Amino acid sequence: MLQRSYKPVAALALIAAVCSLLVAAACRTGSPPKTSLASLVNPTTQTDWYFASVANGGNDSFSCGSATPCVTISGGMIPKLGVLGPNGQLGQTWGTATAPIVVTLHMQYSQTLGQELALLTPQLIGPSTTLAIVGTPQNIGSTFAAGTNPIDGGVTLIQYKDAGGNPGAEYQIPNMPDAALAGMLLTKTAQADGGTFVSSAALIQYMDASTAIIDQPQTLGPLTTVTMNPSPVEDTTWGTGDTLQLASLPLVNLEPLEVKAGDTDGVHGGLWLSEIEIPDQQGDAGQSKWRLRAAGGALVASLVKFDPNVIVDMSGSPGTASIMSCQFPGGAALTGNVTVYAGSATGVFNASGNVETLTNGFAAMGNLFIRNGTTAMNEVYCASTITPFDGLVTMNPTGLLWGPCIVNLTQPGTAFWSQGDSTTFFPTMYIASSDGGTCYDGGGLANDKTLINAAHLDTCGALYNPLTGSRFTH
Length: 474
What we know:
This protein is mostly beta strands. The protein folds into 3 domains: 37-137 and 250-330, no CATH class; 138-248; 362-474, no CATH class. It is globular and about 65 Å long.
């Protein structure tokens, strides 16, 4: 708890002199100053906070304004708000029931690994009070016309889903600039075919020599507009001649994030993250676990590369989590009401509890496990294995599930249910099912690897294995 003590005038003068020396030292080094109680800032009066490198004018003794940016959250912002506890966690309550606010942290540069570990745990009051952490991607080189310059870059597309709704393989962009790496951002800034242009973006999933394999692009507006109720939209119009821009996401060192938010008449505030990379403090992706939670509110992450093994925890919260065009190279675990729009996971991906939804061309490149609940797959590309454990996988009536994938139904309590006969599967996908059965799960174990296609839906609306006669429903 923040302690206040009242000293004689002479002592206060001495303290002021010491603070002046500390501020002067901070101006030379960029290190955090000591902040007096009188100089604490209420985020209601300063809702935008800016952070830049020392080389670009950042200093933690500054006010963190647009023209006077700080360097770190822990050294520049938090001391100005006041702290609670030995670790310097944020100790402010933001907003009121009648005056909700959006507090935005603008990360304008990429930190070095371990430069700080900012611990943010604010309490958000009001129907839409939100903490937003927004990165500024750093452009790499100039724009290039896709498919017209083999030196600067070009594109030939094999799409996740074309304009007619037909799925394929992955977006592949050959002849990328030498600087291109996995996790970088590609933005379409102009369209070449004369159609209606809408800016859109995707992250590079991985590089195969000079070819970039990217996630399903989505339109940029919903990905960058701070709201707790986003409506992301796929862009299936990328093509030869489009103008593309390559950029890197700023790295931000954050401790696991948790905000406490309320709602009024179902209007939620909460946490927004966009266009940043969260590093794994151990160095390699997936070595550490990192929790993301909005208790009582909503959570949105957009165009974020999460290097740790991420736990998105919405258990017990009336709000929802919307994960849009994000990447999980270290894997992830979802709990509660979470919807994942596009993006990809190369590590192990777990969904547990109820109401997780995977859609908009989400790419499960690693093993996908469904545990103790229901997961809806509206539009998913699977390159490995889907394995329910005491879990139900549902497909909506117009859902798409495709890729070189095995749907493993050998575990107890497993079910895979189609909500209508129009669900589409594709012939590179296999089923590994239990032996025997009726319209409900039978017993025994067998690993049949029978090819799945659209004819493998039985009259119960479930997957049907013609080799064993197995049927599964809920």
